[in-house]
Amino acid sequence: MELIKELPEVFEEFAEQRQKSFMAMKGLKDQGVPVVGAYCTYFPAEIARAMGAVTVGLCSVSDETIPDAEKDLPKNLCPLIKSSYGFAKTDKCPFFYFSDVVVGETTCDGKKKMYEYMSDFKDVFVMELPNTQSEMALQLWKSELIRFKKYLEKKFDVEITDEAVLEAVELLVNKKHYDEFVMISADPSVLSTRMERTKGFEDALILKGIHSKTNIVPADIDEEGLRKIIEKELRFGVKTLIFVANCFLLPRVFVALKNYRNLMPDTLGLLGYDNTEWANLSAPTVTTIVQPAYKEGCQSAKILIDAIEERYEECPNQILKCYINWNESVIIGK
Q1: How far apart are CA 22 and CA 30, in angstroms?
Q2: Does the pLDDT of residue 171 top 70, yes or no?
Q3: Is 269 helix (H, G, I), strand (E, B) or coil?
Q4: Mean pLDDT in the chain?
Q5: Is the pLDDT reported for residue 79 higher than 60?
Q6: Contact between residue 229 and residue 184 where contact means Cβ atoms under 8 Å apart
Q7: φ and ψ at 240, to 5 degrees?
Q8: Which of 217 and 194 is assigned the larger pLDDT?
Q9: pLDDT classification of 275: cutoffs 50, 70, 90
Q10: Are the beta carbons of 1 and 157 closer than 8 angstroms?
């Protein structure tokens, strides 16, 4: 089959970052690399990878295309489905546009209706996803995997071997959860402990050979200012983790991400400090690094009393262990 390589007619209308995403995808297609897009995390990416394809996650990032979608889809469908369909229909998503096939799934009636309409302008392969845990469900899913494999082999005129699938599985198991890492912090030089946080985040990634981006923001920045910064950092389909180094900034960042929370945790991750009084109750709940505040107070009092009494038995510099309060805003990888 002939791969999609040409840019859409509306390319010149896009903002610079979206144009860059289109050009990055076009670069792959110019090399003859097939692209398989999917909306569901149950998508068997290892089978597509085994034939040398690039797999991309498809979803919506805003409501800008909902009016276009409502020309075809019922208005009472959920906004996520309408936005996803709208980006597909208008050629405004580079990852959908350059996908040679889109893999759908039967998770809800709304999505099934979306795939039905989508098949008018894109090759769509819909997989039957079992909704129970049973031997019968397992056999159904196995048969769907085999059916998907045969479909790819026929469509792309390739042979997918067991060895290639195994290699692809190992690659996926060993890969990191997020592709890009962005830190948002107030000026760390104002308080040395915040400097340790920012440096620790950067150093941990450097040790893994991963580059990160840092945004130093004013302490009084509002949610709108944060939203503008975040939108400049996010790229279509790129899995991004946002780390907030300051406790007081985390709730503002969470509010600024209002239109992107549906992407958590698979496409967008959020990690911060403390704030457990609301982070465990928000939707989605937010993963935070919790500092041992009570123990800090106890140890500080002991050090102070020790100095006042001139006993000097307590070490003035102590390391207390934090813990991670795992929640829904990141892919859990303990």
Answers
A1: 12
A2: no
A3: strand
A4: 81
A5: yes
A6: yes
A7: -125, 135
A8: 217
A9: confident
A10: yes
State both tokens at 156.
């792309």
Question: What are the structure tokens assigned to 110, written together?
Answer: 């709304």
**Residue 294 neighbours by CB distance under 10 Å:** 8
Residue 241's H or E segment, with its range, is strand 240-244
Give the Cα separation of 5 and 7 in Å (integer): 7
CA distance 255 to 12: 32
Q: How many residues comprise the chain?
A: 334
- What pTM does this model have? 0.51
Tell me the pLDDT tens digit for each residue of 302-330: 888 888 888 777 766 666 677 778 888 88
Closest CA to 29 of 49, 58, 46, 7: 7
230 within 8 A of 88, measured Cβ to Cβ? no
Whole-number Cα distances in Å, 17 to 103, 214, 234: 26, 18, 9
Q: How confident is the model at residue 173 (pLDDT cuts 50, 70, 90)?
A: very low
The type of residue at 202 is E
